[in-house]
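2024-03-11 09:14:02 INFO queue: dequeued item DUF6533 domain-containing protein, len=353
2024-03-11 09:14:02 INFO validating residues
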Amino acid sequence: MAEFDVYDSFELFMHNVLHVVGICILYYDYIITFANEVSYIWSNPRTHASWLFLLNRYFSILSDVAVVSANFADFMTVEACKNYYFFRQMMLVIAQVIVCIISFLRTYALYERSKRIMTFIVSVFLVLFSLACWSLIGQNSEYSIRHGCQQAISKPTGIHLAVAWEALFAYDCMIFALTIYKTYQERTRSNVAMLNSLVELIWRDGAIYFAVMACANAANVLTFYFLSPELKGLLSTFASSVSVTMMSRIMLNLHESASLTKFNPTPGSISTSDPSNSTLIFTSRITMPSTALGHNVSVDHHTVSEHSRSASNCISHGCQASGEGLSPDPEVPIELENIGTTTVVADGSIGRV
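2024-03-11 09:14:37 INFO prediction written
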């Protein structure tokens, strides 16, 4: 592996600054949202959603510690420098795979856990992931260890590596299009205030995420095509950090939205003593009787939340009627299909049983 002449001072400065900016965004957001993380994640029982949140946030935080530490290390051989850059690329790929999995689960829940949607998204993901892995093979780059570990990417390799970020952009476009379609459907057919506010939250966060990531990914892809070999891909760490940060914010927003209803119940609402029903998980539901029951139902934002916890327990264990509502009874299964209900997955997704 040949060693190239070290960057000029401006290129080295720009590369290091933008790398640090991306990491600073990740750590700054972690600091200012840590109190919310303690309130909504650590203070509640662990669920699939909370574990995914922790994996998304702490994998990048810890891997960036290793990357930054290596930036200040002295590399004895060019081969060690080459391995370090491959490690950086793998960390970026894994971080984005975690984000894609969370996006998939949100969309899958939004579409009522439709097997057809799951098959479609997983199939597209596997194709795009295969392209991303292919783009990391057969790289033709030069490395310098005179001032730390520096990489110069050739033009063919730059175009090759750009495919991975283009695949990520295509995946984001697919998820955003599916979210727009489903939220529009739910807004037009739902008359319940909470459902509309929840749809607005999903739409708002999804739109902001897509807009920001579209700009970040587009800028990063352009660096692979048009910048000098030393600066190709200099926005990769920045784009990845922004993606991880925004996905963490989306999940915290959903936890906060659910927490507002959890801690502000109204008189007459249905409650349950099971603490697991007040925890955000991807399969918890809010069930609302449809007009097929033959009478009008007036439910406010907080009452819907209490129905969520009771109905979630009923779905798992069966319910029986009581003077104050529904109570769990494992010997009396509930026939949801005979009633017709609208369901809301507690992480913010909407569907029908």
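2024-03-11 09:14:37 INFO annotate: Residues 265-353 have pLDDT under 50 and may be disordered.
2024-03-11 09:14:38 INFO item closed
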